[in-house]
Design goal:
Structural class: alpha+beta
Oligomer: single chain
Strand content: 15-25%
Order of helices and strands: HEEEEEEEEEEEHHHHHH
Distance between the termini: 166 Å
Largest sheet: 5 strands, antiparallel
Radius of gyration: 54 Å
Length: 326
């Protein structure tokens, strides 16, 4: 029996000693505020290390009319004497005037076998409203500041302004060209290259690359016939690029600007080219060189004859008396 009484006394003394080491409470930033203002409601416990503290769990309101905006936010700091200061903080407000009382709320302390619930003291707060002068009416307590413009706010107006200037400037320029009977869009015309020059350049390129060498016969005859076909198309209006060799030869028979001997050279070259491209026939090296010379002779001979005929026709035209002198 004595042992049980002694154990009970030791337990009571331990609880009293632990409670003496714990400080707790609740506080507000101020006990008076205006309607709609915000302040902090803070629960605090100061205890030794190893003590578990469970603060009151508040949801939407502290009491009726006093609302919780945010929280809780928990923080802990160890002080110089080794004690720990634990706190949980809420941001609260009220939208109606009157006296509000934060009731006594439980804080649970757990340390080993010790488990006790401590209760905070009640704390009051007065919420008042603004005093409105009937003569002046409602007005802002602090006049709003004019915030400076940032670059991101100015940029859209700047871009739209530049776009408007560009559109107006472009429209004015087009209108000016229209009034002056000038083309709206002027483009630099490409220099027209005569068919004769194009053909000679193509043949010179074939000659420099020496495409008639063994292994390149197909490419050689393709390039060679394309050069002649392009010349026929540009100089004699024969659509040789879209025609077969047989169609080209048939069109040459109806062209009085090309001599029979010239047609025979082209026929021999086109026939050989078809054998090389489609029958994989390999002509001799001297034949390849001979067909290149034949292409040169055809282009130069027909071009010189056409220029000569054109000069003679111009001389006849200048020598004929005009109708006014008759």
């Amino acid at each position: 029996m004595r042992k049980q009484i002694l154990l009970f006394l030791l337990l009571v003394c331990g609880i009293g000693s632990l409670q003496a080491q714990i400080e707790y409470g609740v506080e507000l930033d101020t006990n008076y505020m205006l309607i709609g203002d915000q302040q902090h409601l803070t629960f605090k416990v100061r205890s030794r290390e190893g003590v578990r503290v469970v603060f009151p769990q508040l949801k939407d309101t502290v009491v009726k009319g006093m609302e919780i905006i945010s929280g809780p936010v928990r923080d802990s700091v160890q002080e110089d004497d080794g004690q720990w200061l634990l706190q949980e903080q809420y941001v609260i407000t009220a939208f109606d005037t009157g006296l509000y009382v934060v009731p006594s709320l439980p804080i649970t302390i757990e340390a080993g076998e010790f488990n006790n619930v401590l209760r905070t003291e009640e704390i009051g707060i007065v919420v008042n409203t603004y005093v409105i002068d009937p003569q002046q009416g409602n007005y802002d307590i602090v006049m709003p500041y004019e915030a400076p413009w940032s670059l991101l706010e100015i940029l859209p107006y700047l871009l739209w302004g530049l776009l408007a200037v560009a559109v107006l400037g472009g429209g004015g320029y087009l209108w000016w060209r229209y009034k002056k009977n000038k083309p709206l869009f002027s483009a630099t015309p490409k220099e027209a290259v005569p068919p004769y020059v194009t053909a000679i350049r193509a043949l010179d390129s074939i000659k420099e690359e020496k495409l008639w060498q063994p292994g390149q016969e197909k490419l050689y005859y393709t390039r060679l016939t394309d050069a002649v076909r392009s010349y026929l198309d540009g100089e004699f209006d024969i659509a040789a690029m879209e025609q077969t060799s047989a169609e080209i030869l048939q069109a040459l028979k109806g062209c009085d600007k090309i001599l029979p001997a010239e047609r025979e050279k082209l026929e021999d070259m086109l026939t050989t080219a078809d054998f090389v491209k489609f029958a994989k026939w390999k002509p001799l090296q001297d034949e390849n060189a001979r067909y290149l010379d034949a292409a040169y002779d055809f282009v130069r001979g027909t071009h010189e004859r056409l220029e000569s005929d054109a000069a003679k026709q111009e001389d006849r035209t200048e020598g004929e008396p005009s109708s006014d002198n008759r």
